[in-house]
Amino acid sequence: MLKTLIVEDEPRMREGLKRIIYWEKYGFNLCGDAENGRQALELIEREQPALVITDIRLPGITGLELMKDVTGRMDTCFIVISGYDEFEYVKTALICGAVDYILKPVEEEQLIGALLRVKKRLLKALPSTAASAGSAAELEMGMPSDDPIAFVKEYVASHYQEQVTMKEIAGKTYLHPFYLGQLFRKATGIYFNDYVHQIRVDKARLLLATTSSKIADIAAGVGYPDPDYFVQQFKKITGCTPSHFRKNQL
C-alpha cells in the first residue's frame, strides 16, 4: 500500500476526500491528514508518504510552497486540488512536478485517474531489479496503459475530421483540460490547436498531391467546413495556398 497524506484546510472538504473512494482498493493507504502547510510538512517528514494530495491555498505555507520544499528532497508525488482555474497556478504546479491538478469539487473518476497516474510515475522510478518486481506488480494493478500525450495524438489522428477539442479528450483521460493542455505543450513544444491544424494540413497536402478532388471538398474532408478558413490555415503552415501547392506537384 502507498502511504497517502491529505492536506486541506476546510474540514468538510478534508473529510470528503477521506471518504470519496475506498483507497485500499487502488493500492493507497491514508496515513494522516493536515489542515495547514506546517502541519503537513511535519507529517511528511515523519510518515514519508508516497503521495500528498494538497489544496493550493493553505494557511501559512501554501500547497505550492509545500511542494517546492519537499520535491527534490524526498520521493513524494503530489496531486494538487484547487478552486482556482488560473494559468499561473497550473504552470507552477507543473514546474514543481505535480502529477495532476484537479479543480474543486473533486469528482471520484478524476481522482481515481490521478491515482493511477501516480502509480505509473512511481513504477517508472523503480529500479529494474528482481527485488523491485513485487512492488512493480502491485503498482501495475488497475493502471491505465495509455500515456496521456500519446493518447491525445492517437485521438487527433482518428478524429481530425471532426471538431475535436481538448475538453473532449481530457474527459476521456480524467485530466482537467487546462492541465492536459499544459502537459501537451510541455511534451511537444506546440499548442494543442496548432497541432490539430498541423495534422489536418498534412492530410490535405497528401490529398492535394494525389487526388483531383476540389479544394473545398478536401477542406471539408480534413475538418474545415469553411474553405476560406482552410486556405488561411494552409497558407499559415506551408507558406502557400492549396491551389499553388497543387500546381507545384504537377
From TrEMBL:
GO molecular function annotations of the record: DNA-binding transcription factor activity; sequence-specific DNA binding
Subcellular location field: Cytoplasm
GO cellular-component term (any): cytoplasm
Main location (coarse class): cytoplasm
Protein's GO biological process: phosphorelay signal transduction system
Domain Response regulatory positions: 3-119
Species classification: Bacteria, Bacillati, Bacillota, Bacilli, Bacillales
CDD domains listed in its UniProt record: REC_YesN-like
Designated name of the protein: Helix-turn-helix domain-containing protein
PROSITE patterns recorded: HTH_ARAC_FAMILY_1, HTH_ARAC_FAMILY_2, RESPONSE_REGULATORY
Taxonomy, superkingdom: Bacteria
4-aspartylphosphate PTM sites in chain numbering: 55
Keywords for this protein: Cytoplasm, DNA-binding, Phosphoprotein, Transcription, Transcription regulation, Two-component regulatory system
Database matches in Pfam families: HTH_18, Response_reg
Residues in HTH araC/xylS-type domain copies: 150-248
